[in-house]
């Protein structure tokens, strides 16, 4: 490490002569400046040459980690420090494992990065971390060889050559001594589980061992017993017996179950003014007389802390005292509330938002500097941020800065909010097709929603543009503006519309929003291949009925009232969505005054459309320890017009497709003018649908869920139940990098002859 003979000569000479240092030089430095080196050496011009001080200065330099070798030379009163620096790591590679995200993640676990100085000890630790990381993925007997390649004069490339060995498959789980609970109950939460039949298929248990999780699995088994009231259960550490010839394993747990306890008495000890113990006890999910459940007790503790937090206490602690009585097999609980001191908000600190502006996030935080802390406001803030759809993850924590002040730390992980698509194709009905669209919920991080698109084919031309600012100038007011041009050639008529709308809204009472607006539509629909089949004075009979020849202008006034307290935009697990919408429209135009049926003349006038929807969401994880989400959705629309006023077919109601009744083609269910002619669609005036769904996780890593649904819908001209249909199916819900995608596989249950069914549909970015 040093030139010992030369250093010894210097030190002896300095001791004999007691020579003063007249000059200090540093040669070979690149990582440090000379002034920094002087500070590290702690030797100065004018000092007496001292062997111990020089020796210590060399140690100081080695401690910096920059140098491979350091030695000292002496020329008269000049000390010359010579340095041989370590080379830098210019590149890190993994061979034999793979590339992409998996390879990057494994590289990140090494602790090495480009630009670091090469150090054999650090490289050895990185190798050990690689092996440990692969063991967590189930690879056993992994071998890693490390080589280096020079890159220029002062840098090297480090190469980890990985032979990731074999994966251990768990073929048998043995819970020795377990009789009160089934193996499926005990195994449900474990990271290491038996290989399922057809375990190679996605979303089934492959049986691959996760070595790093074995130690925690014993606690998970113990927790299962605690959820079922077995407080005295003892679970040994797992013993994994591996056959290294086949790399198959069995895992043994030794269990003593003990007795099952019921809850005896529950008391709550607290001294907060305004809080009644009776009200707090009514909140509890763990009830007296029921079997003890550790998960429900933890939920009750959380709920009590939140309720106390609503009185300004940020650091509430609820400690449960548990008194077991083995003779009566009961456990008495006493929740002791330690509220701490009331606190106020000092500041709100935001992180993780690379695109979204701070002021956009602050709109949805109901606590500001100077406010008294409130736990419900904190929860509502987190839910409000989740409802925006801007973020994949939201976390709000408190940071204590004094006895009575805290900072709120708001950390977000942004989600993909924009999509750009372009495509083309050819269809036997639509001919050559081309489309492109741009949709962004959070334009330039401003919170403004933008939609642009066009769709062109031989039978259709569609353009649309819309903008929505949910918080104009960071106020509670919103503003939406939209324009569209649609032309579509159906089998028996061509719909041609130009329209737009302007809507002003306002949020109030936190969960409510109201809006008013105006809209305008110029409709020039025409029936294809019209044939005059008769005349009666000035009255014209066109084709079969002539009811598709709608040329009118519509001016509308809109009113909306909505409620939304859900916790997420795309996958809510709690809360309710409810809304009622009114549209009052006035129609004017050149009507054909068609005679239909009894010969009654009808003209355009006014109509009122009333729509309502309800969505209820309930996550079951707290109750059953499984991320099951139950959903109930209902929609209804009624149109009213005068007895002698005509409703254009383009304005009327249709049923079918995503958003109303899956399993049937969009807008395919409607009353008919002629029951024997399936093409004589007229649209309805009353429509309703109900949906029940159960959503379960499919792949947490891929952000995929599986939802089972039942849909029921009705539509009619004079009553809701003139046409009734239902369907069942499953939906693959995927929060992809391109936005949320739903793949719908459905089965029409009671379809009739002529119904247009749709066994597969997909949507992107839908909600409700």
Q: How many structural domains does the protein architecture include?
A: 6
Largest sheet: 17 strands, antiparallel
Q: What oligomeric arrangement do these chains adopt?
A: single chain
Full CATH superfamily name of the largest domain? membrane protein fhac: a member of the omp85/tpsb transporter family
Level-1 CATH class name of the largest domain: Mainly Beta
The share of residues in extended strands comes to 35-45%
The structural class is: alpha+beta
Question: What's the number of extended β-strand segments?
Answer: 37
Helix percent reads 10-25%
Rg over CA atoms, rounded to whole Å, is: 37 Å
Return residue spans where pLDDT drops below 50 for at least 5 consecutive residues: 1-5, 530-546, 592-601
Straight-line N-to-C gap: 70 Å
Mean pLDDT: 83
CATH fold-type name of the largest domain: Porin
The number of helical runs is 12
| CATH architecture name of the largest domain | Beta Barrel
Shape: globular
